[in-house]
Amino acid sequence: MIKVGIVGGAGYTAGELLRILLNHPHAEITCVQSTSNAGNPITAVHTDLLGDTELSFAPKLDTAKVDVIFLCMGHGKSKEFLTENRIPESIKIIDLSHDYRIETPGNDFVYGLPELNMEAIKTANKIANPGCFATAIQLALLPLAAAKQLNEVHVNAVTGSTGAGQKPTSTSHFSWRNNNLSVYKVFSHQHLGEIRQSLKQLQQDFNKPVNFVPVRGNFTRGIMATAYTDSDLSQEEAIQLYKRYYQDHPFVTVTDTNPNLKQVVNTNKAIVFIEKHEGKIFIVSMIDNLVKGASGQAVHNMNLMFGVDEKAGLRLKSVAF
Known about the structure:
- The protein is built from eight helices and 13 strands.
- A seven-stranded mixed β-sheet has the order 8-9-7-10-13-12-11. A six-stranded parallel β-sheet has the order 2-1-3-4-6-5, with helices on one face.
- By secondary structure, it is an alpha/beta fold.
């Protein structure tokens, strides 16, 4: 069994990790750390797990009990934690923050998008889990970049309120978010850096703009990203290009039917839809921001790192209504 520790166990991504790992055939949760909830039952925070676990939050991570650590803290906190705590090299690390996603000198984390870096993930000791917007948008664009067919891109993506984290803010509480929509961080969202990095990994001379307009949605979870770019490909050529790229990636489905968000919510699925409109390829990419965009992808990375079935623990079902 893979012994799992979670640091920062009270947030949304940690709650999703717990839900997945409690039903994982090859994993055992041995330590869930939370400074703010130390000593409290996990179910006092993650109430959906009532009846599923008797674990309590620990004040500190016990490294003697774990094979892998998931870091589920705010951006900047993971780097701080790893600076202040000596983690044995035998323990694998999967970081869900933004701290190690961008390649810099001395950064030995592998960018953990399986549909891009599967072979590198299998031999990695440290993984930087991608951002949720970044995951949805990259899955919409990677096949074109791999075929050196990517031009200037225009992206609009809508995310649920859980993407902002558990701590209430002026733009995440119910009375503001409900029956409301708003645009934010236009052309400047923090996930653009990792998106550009991945696109250039596949299409080295790519230097065109990625024009990204993020939108706060009035729903809890899920991301719908729509993108378009100039292309000489026919619709059938584009669809076949996407199907070939994702043929060995079990969590991405290329469909010829315009999808809806409920098809992916509560699952580790990504659904990608392609249409040709005059001289442009139009792509829809849908994921659950907390699962495929965060915790489910992190477990997928763990499965690859430990050599178990990559789908283990991730056969999650969507809810139609």
